[in-house]
C-alpha cells in the first residue's frame, strides 16, 4: 500500500470521527432543547417553583451554548479543510493538464505519462468524494442526514481519454494520404474527418492550456514585482523576500521553457491544418473540373456565337497555364497591387514630412543580398483546357505578374531587410538624463580608467534614496521620506526641501526648473535655488522619472496609465489609461512616445494626440525605460528578453533571452547592448543581430540599469547587507575592477566632474575619485 493510500485512509478515519462527533453534538443539542421545552411546560403548570425554573434553565442554556460553540468550531474546521481540498483539486487538475500537454508535444512517452495521469485522476476522484462529504456536512439539518453521508461512496474513476502525441497524429495523416492513392475516396474522407477532429481537439486543448499558463505567469510576475519592491525597501523580511523571488523566478523559467515548446507545437499544427485546407480546396476544385468535363461531353443545344472581343480574351487566357488557381491568381494580383500602392504612398509621405535625423546609408557591400527564390519542380496546372491549334502567343499575363512580383520583392528587400551595420544617432533632446545620454552612456563628457577609484567622501541623507540627477555640477535626488536634496561635488548640502510624498524617482532638468514627482501624485516645479513656485496634482502615483521635451512632460502614473502635460499651461494634453501598471520612464523622439507596462504590452503613441500608432506583446512585464537608437528601440522585460524593434511599425528585428528578469534598462554604445538581470548576470549583446557577445556572472542580485562610461560598463549589485560597483570592459565583458560598498545598491552610479557617485539603500551617498 502506498503512502498516498495510507494518508487517504487516515483522512477518511478523521472525517468519520468528525461525523460521529457532529452527530453526537447534534443529538445532545436536540435533547437539551427538548428538555428546555419540558422545563417551560412544568413551570407553566406550576409543577416547579420559579427559583427551580431559573436554576435549571441557566444550567441547560450553559450546556446549550457550549455544544453550539463546539459545533461552530467543528464547522469552521470542516470549512478550512474544504477550502484546502478545493485548492488541492485545482492543483491536481492543473497537474493533469500539464502531463497531458507534455504527452501531446512528445516531452514524455505515452506509457509513463498515462500511468501518471491515471494516478492523478484517482486523486481527483477521491478529492471530489471528500469535498462532496464536507459540503453535505455543512448543510446538515438533522442527525439522520449524517447517516446518509456515511453511506456515500466514491465515484468510479473515469476512463482515461485517448491522448495521441502530435507526431503520431502527423504520421497517421501521412499514412492516410498514402492509402488515398490506392483506396476508396469515401473511406479516406471519413477517416480524414475523424483525424481532423482529433487534431483540432489537440490544438484547442494546447491553446487553452497555454493561455492558462500565461495567466498564472502574469500573477507570478506581479508577485515578483511586489517582492522586488520589498527588496529595495529592505528590512527584516528581505531574506524571505529574496528566497520567494528566487522560487518565483525558477517557476517562471519553467513556464517559459514549456511555453516555447507548446507554441512550437501549435505552429506545427497550424501549418498542417493550413496544408489540409489547401488540399481539401484542390479536391473540391478537381471534382468541379470533372463535373464540368462531363457536362462538356453532353450534347449541347445550338447557341449564338461568342462575340469576337470576348472570344479573343478567352483564347489569350486559354493560352496560359498557371500553378495558381483562378481565385488565388486574383488574390495574388490584389496583394501585389497593394504592396506597390503602399510603396508609392510611403515615398510620397516621406517626401512631405519634416526633416528628421538622417542616417547615412551603408555602402553596397554592407547590405545583405536577398536570397534567390526558385521553384521546386515543374509547375502543376490546376486545369487543362482543350483549344484549337493556333499560333504561339506571348504570355502577357505571366510577364506582367512577374514584373509585379520582382518589383514587390525588390521593394521589400530595400525597405525591410536589416542592414549589416548599425549607427547610433542623437534624438531630439529628452530631459530626464540622469545616467548619461538616452542610451545610458556618457559619451566623451566623462571617462574612467582601469585604476580603481579611491574613496573621496560619504554623506548621510537618510531614507532610501532615488536615482540622482546631475545639472551644472550639482546632484539633485530625493528619498522615500519626501525630502529633495541639492548636493555639490564636495559632499555639501546646498539646500533641501520637504515635499508631500516620497520621491522615489530621479528629478528632471527643465531649464530654470527642477521637476520632481512624488508617490502622492504631485509634480513640483522648483527653481535651482530650492524655491518651490508651482505644485501640480497629476492624479496618480509618480514612481518613474517623467520624460520632458520642450514644454511637454510625459508621465507614467502607476495604475493610471500615461499622461502628456503642457508645462506652460499646467494642463493635460492627452492621456491613456488601460488600467494596467505603468512603472517606467517613457522614451520620446520627435514624433513618438514609447513605453511598456506590466501587462506585457509595449506602446508607441503619437506625441501630439496620444494615438496608439502600434503596439506589441512582450514575453514579460516591462518596468524599465526603453532606449531609442536611430530608427529602432531597444527594451527589456522581466522574463529576461531583450528586444530591438523597428520604430516605424513595431516590427521585432530580434529578441534575445538572458534567462532571468531584467529590472533595468539596456545601455548602448558602439553597437553593443549591455543589460543586467536580477540573478546577477551582465550580458553584452550585438545591436546588429542580437547575438550574445559576452556574459559575466556577479553572483549577486542586480536591480539597477548599467551605465557606460568611455570603454567601460558600470553596474551596481546588492548582496545581503553589502553592495558592489563593477566596471566591465565594453568589448570583452572582462571585469576591470570592483568596489565593495557597505550597503545594498539599488540605483545606478553617476559621473560628475572627477567623481563616481552612488546612492545607497541606507540613505548615504558614496563618492569615489576617478583620477
UniProtKB/TrEMBL annotation:
Please list the coiled coil stretches. 50-102, 203-230
Q: Which UniProt keywords apply?
A: Coiled coil, Membrane, Transmembrane, Transmembrane helix
Annotated region Disordered: where?
Answer: 280-310
Which Pfam families does UniProt cross-reference here? PQQ_2
Q: Where is the Pyrrolo-quinoline quinone repeat domain?
A: 454-525, 529-621, 639-768
Q: Which domain of life is it from?
A: Bacteria
The portions of this protein that span the membrane are 394-417
Protein name in the entry: Pyrrolo-quinoline quinone repeat domain-containing protein
**Which organism does this record belong to?**
candidate division WOR-3 bacterium
Amino acid at each position: 500500500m502506498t503512502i498516498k493510500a495510507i494518508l487517504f485512509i487516515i483522512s477518511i478515519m478523521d472525517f468519520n470521527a468528525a461525523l460521529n462527533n457532529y452527530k453526537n453534538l447534534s443529538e445532545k443539542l436536540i435533547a437539551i432543547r427538548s428538555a428546555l421545552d419540558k422545563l417551560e411546560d412544568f413551570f407553566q403548570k406550576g409543577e416547579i417553583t420559579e427559583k427551580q425554573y431559573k436554576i435549571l434553565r441557566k444550567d441547560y442554556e450553559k450546556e446549550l451554548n457550549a455544544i453550539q460553540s463546539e459545533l461552530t468550531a467543528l464547522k469552521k474546521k470542516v470549512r478550512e479543510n474544504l477550502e484546502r481540498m478545493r485548492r488541492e483539486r485545482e492543483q491536481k487538475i492543473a497537474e493533469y493538464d500539464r502531463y497531458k500537454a507534455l504527452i501531446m508535444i512528445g516531452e514524455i512517452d505515452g506509457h509513463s505519462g498515462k500511468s501518471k495521469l491515471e494516478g492523478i485522476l484517482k486523486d481527483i476522484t477521491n478529492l471530489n468524494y471528500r469535498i462532496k462529504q464536507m459540503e453535505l456536512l455543512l448543510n446538515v439539518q438533522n442527525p439522520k442526514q449524517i447517516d446518509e453521508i456515511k453511506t456515500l461512496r466514491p465515484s468510479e474513476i473515469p476512463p482515461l481519454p485517448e491522448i495521441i502525441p502530435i507526431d503520431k497524429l502527423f504520421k497517421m495523416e501521412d499514412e492516410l494520404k498514402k492509402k488515398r492513392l490506392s483506396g476508396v475516396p469515401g473511406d479516406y474522407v471519413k477517416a480524414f474527418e475523424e483525424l481532423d477532429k482529433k487534431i483540432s481537439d489537440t490544438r484547442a486543448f494546447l491553446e487553452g492550456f497555454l493561455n492558462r499558463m500565461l495567466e498564472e505567469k502574469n500573477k507570478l510576475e506581479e508577485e515578483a514585482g511586489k517582492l522586488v519592491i520589498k527588496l529595495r525597501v529592505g528590512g527584516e523580511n528581505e531574506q524571505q523576500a529574496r528566497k520567494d523571488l528566487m522560487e518565483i523566478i525558477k517557476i517562471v523559467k519553467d513556464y517559459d521553457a514549456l511555453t516555447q515548446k507548446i507554441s512550437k507545437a501549435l505552429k506545427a499544427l497550424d501549418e498542417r491544418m493550413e496544408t489540409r485546407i489547401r488540399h481539401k480546396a484542390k479536391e473540391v476544385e478537381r471534382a468541379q473540373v470533372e463535373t464540368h468535363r462531363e457536362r462538356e461531353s453532353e450534347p449541347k443545344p445550338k447557341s449564338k456565337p461568342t462575340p469576337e472581343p470576348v472570344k479573343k480574351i478567352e483564347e489569350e487566357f486559354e493560352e496560359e497555364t498557371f500553378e495558381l488557381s483562378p481565385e488565388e491568381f486574383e488574390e495574388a494580383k490584389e496583394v501585389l497591387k497593394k504592396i506597390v500602392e503602399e510603396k508609392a504612398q510611403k515615398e510620397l509621405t516621406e517626401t512631405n514630412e519634416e526633416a528628421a535625423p538622417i542616417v547615412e546609408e551603408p555602402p553596397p557591400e554592407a547590405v545583405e543580398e536577398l536570397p534567390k527564390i526558385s521553384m521546386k519542380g515543374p509547375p502543376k496546372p490546376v486545369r487543362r483546357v482543350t483549344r484549337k491549334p493556333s499560333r504561339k502567343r506571348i504570355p502577357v499575363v505571366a510577364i506582367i505578374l512577374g514584373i509585379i512580383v520582382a518589383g514587390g520583392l525588390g521593394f521589400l528587400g530595400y525597405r525591410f531587410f536589416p542592414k549589416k551595420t548599425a549607427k547610433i544617432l542623437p534624438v531630439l533632446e529628452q530631459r530626464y538624463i540622469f545616467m548619461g545620454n538616452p542610451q545610458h552612456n556618457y559619451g566623451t563628457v566623462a571617462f574612467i580608467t582601469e585604476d580603481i577609484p579611491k574613496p573621496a567622501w560619504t554623506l548621510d541623507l537618510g531614507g532610501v534614496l532615488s536615482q540622482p540627477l546631475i545639472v551644472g555640477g550639482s546632484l539633485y535626488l530625493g528619498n522615500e521620506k519626501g525630502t529633495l536634496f541639492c548636493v555639490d561635488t564636495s559632499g555639501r548640502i546646498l539646500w533641501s526641501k520637504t515635499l508631500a510624498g516620497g520621491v522615489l524617482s530621479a528629478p528632471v532638468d527643465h531649464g530654470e526648473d527642477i521637476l520632481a514627482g512624488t508617490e502622492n501624485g504631485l509634480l513640483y516645479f522648483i527653481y535651482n535655488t530650492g524655491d518651490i513656485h508651482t505644485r501640480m496634482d497629476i492624479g496618480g502615483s509618480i514612481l518613474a522619472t517623467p520624460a520632458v521635451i520642450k514644454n511637454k512632460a510625459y508621465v507614467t502614473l502607476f495604475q493610471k496609465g500615461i499622461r502628456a502635460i503642457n508645462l506652460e499651461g499646467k494642463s493635460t494634453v492627452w492621456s491613456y489609461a488601460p488600467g494596467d501598471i505603468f512603472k517606467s520612464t517613457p522614451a520620446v523622439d520627435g514624433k513618438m512616445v514609447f513605453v511598456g507596462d506590466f501587462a506585457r504590452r509595449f506602446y508607441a503613441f503619437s506625441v501630439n494626440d496620444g494615438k496608439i500608432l502600434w503596439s506589441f506583446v512582450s514575453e514579460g512585464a516591462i518596468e524599465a525605460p526603453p532606449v531609442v537608437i536611430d530608427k529602432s528601440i531597444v527594451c527589456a522585460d522581466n522574463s529576461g528578453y531583450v528586444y530591438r524593434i523597428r520604430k516605424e511599425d513595431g516590427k521585432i528585428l530580434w529578441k534575445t533571452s538572458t534567462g532571468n528578469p531584467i529590472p533595468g534598462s539596456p545601455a548602448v554604445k558602439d553597437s553593443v547592448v549591455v543589460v543586467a538581470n536580477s540573478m546577477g548576470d551582465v550580458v553584452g549583446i550585438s545591436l546588429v543581430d542580437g547575438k550574445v557577445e559576452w556574459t559575466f556572472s556577479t553572483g549577486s542580485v542586480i536591480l539597477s540599469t548599467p551605465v557606460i562610461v568611455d570603454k567601460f560598463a558600470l553596474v551596481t549589485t546588492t548582496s545581503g547587507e553589502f553592495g558592489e560597483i563593477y566596471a566591465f570592459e565594453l568589448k570583452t565583458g572582462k571585469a576591470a575592477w570592483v568596489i565593495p560598498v557597505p550597503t545594498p545598491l539599488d540605483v545606478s552610479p553617476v559621473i560628475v566632474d572627477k567623481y563616481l557617485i552612488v546612492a545607497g539603500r541606507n540613505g548615504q551617498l558614496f563618492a569615489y575619485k576617478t583620477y
